[in-house]
Amino acid sequence: SIPETNIWFxxxxxPTTINHHRQEESVTPKVSRLMEELCExxxxxxxxxxxxxxQRLEAEAANQRASNAEAELAESRxxxxxxxxxxxxxxxxxxxxxxxxxxSRDLVxxxxxxxxxxxxxxxxxxxxxxxxxxxxxxxxVSIRQLSRSPTTxxxxxxxxxxxxxxxxxxxxxxxxxxxxxHLMCEDCMYGxxxxxxxxxxxxxxxxxxxxxxxxxxxxxxx
Length: 222
Description:
By secondary structure, this protein is of the alpha+beta class. The chain has one domain. The protein has four helices and five strands, in the order ααββββααβ. Strands 1, 2, 3, 4 and 5 form a five-stranded antiparallel β-sheet that branches. The longest helix has 101 residues. The chain is rod-shaped and about 175 Å long. GO terms for molecular function: ligase activity; zinc ion binding. This is E3 ubiquitin-ligase RNF4 isoform X1.
């Protein structure tokens, strides 16, 4: 106690654990621990900054790729439009050429018909040398419109044979003549046209001469 006062002090011989720890711990370790914590936080901050920078670079690269893709898409669309315009022009040219071709075919057909009316009967007549039968020439028909021959015989011709099937014409229901004057049964001509490619069917199966517009006619003998 303090003399001549009422103040008393009580001394605790065994301090508490907390107070004891604070008393024994020096200042230097505290500072070291705080410095370590600050360094760790700084390292984390730097790492986070690097990640942000990397993400920013990746975003910029993605934006650049998107811009390039948009430019390429625009070029592709322009190219498609140009190609479509070219196709339209080619289709128009093709239609015009087809019209010209059809007109040319009609002209050739008319010329062949006019020439054939004078030439074919004499050529067919030479196929039946010595025959006194009358030859009748039917109207010119396109080979593309050729149909199978009728089941009943439409002639009384006794010549032959057919150069394709080697059958005598007297056994054939119908006989046709090519533009070059060769005779064959209509069934053989039908099969020849339907079962051959274009280069083959546009030529006479006997002499291989060009059949021009592929016109034929039926031959009737009375």
